[in-house]
Specification:
With 387 residues, the protein is of the alpha/beta class. The protein is built from 13 helices and 14 strands. The strands form two sheets. Strands 1, 2, 3, 4, 5, 6, 7 and 8 form an eight-stranded mixed beta sheet that branches. The chain has a six-stranded mixed beta sheet with strand order 13-12-9-10-11-14. A hairpin with a 2-residue loop joins strand 6 and strand 7. Helix 3 packs across helix 4, helix 5 crosses helix 10 and helix 8 crosses helix 9. The protein is elongated, with a radius of gyration of 26 Å.
Length: 387
Amino acid sequence: MFNAILVHYQELALKGRNRPWFVDRLLRNLREATRGLGVTEVRALMGRIEIVLADGADLETIRRRASRLFGIANFALAERVPADVAAIEEAAIRHTEGLAPTTFRVAAARADKRFPIPSPELERLVGSRIQDVRGWPVDLDAPATVVHVEVVPGAAFCYVARDRGPGGLPTGVSGRVVSLLSGGIDSPVAAWRMMRRGCRALFVHYHSHPLASRASQDKVRAIVRLLTVSQLHSALLLVPFADIQRRVVVGVPPELRVVIYRRFMLRIADRLARRAGARALVTGEVVGQVASQTLDNLATIDNASTLPVLRPLVGMDKEEITAEARRIGTYEISILPEEDCCQVFAPRHPATRSHHEPLAQIEGALDAEALVEAAVMAAEREEYRGV
Ligand code: ATP
Ligand code: MG
């Protein structure tokens, strides 16, 4: 019965001239995500995309992947039939077999205006046929089940159930960002939010090995594996941070250390981003969440980067962030115990105010430039595939 998956994106959210590019990217991402799963073709059809299924296609895997692919608003396992009323009615009867809703309605969309029957009339025709055969009452306002019919040039699609996609824009349309991933709750959500806007994330994690265990690296690897399902392939750069921490502990007053650590992180990330052609850095910082995240300190931290620092969680409550982390699936990984690289030497009372000049002077005395260069050189790259 099912020979297609019909994919919908949020067309209205697209600006006119970007649309073909957006659709093209979504087609490519869908092809990559469904390779080897029994898909004959992935093609654009007037405002929607059809995934053409061969016999024996791996429907479960296709659905699981589509549900995580950015740019997809929703998708439905559907049947393609000829664009004529009798064929559509027969399909509607097949697709309502075995269901027992309290009420129903038919929703028709006529993307091909050359099809002679307007949508409201098609809805009435198919609806009354279903009513005759199944005996279900119609409810136009709040139906328990909706039978969908979509007419495109040369064909019609029929389906009942729809799955949600994550929405947003297809990976790649917005360029690259470098996403700073700790093992915490916030930074994976921040990364995901920018990924959902069409950015491909290059992940960077600073670890304190051998001062601390490798636990944070394993957490970040697990988070990257999960996020990669949505962007299909990723790279993670693991950057040693212990040398910098040793120098900071010796040369920086305790209350300034956290801000100095962050500035080192951004400086290194900035350098890595430029090499990779990324246009911005992403962090999970939130105004006021901890002492290092006062407006003053965020501004001082910004000074360490030449690229814009994006903070998609900046105005969110912890509760909202946590709920989103659960939805994305990173929460369970983030709450595993670890020593955060900055907890190792973190002072109890970081300064809430800071200024660029005095910090820059301290950093100069530490020979920050050489430390940054050494960390960049020592970064280890790991590749991940989401399919
Ligand atoms: P998170 O929950 O993401 O760890 P947080 O609330 O603990 O955030 P901080 O520890 O102040 O906040 O870190 C602020 C941001 O700096 C993080 O969201 C992350 O983007 C970045 N960051 C912190 N530690 C690391 C690290 N070890 N490696 C990479 N990025 C880091
Ligand atoms: Mg943290």
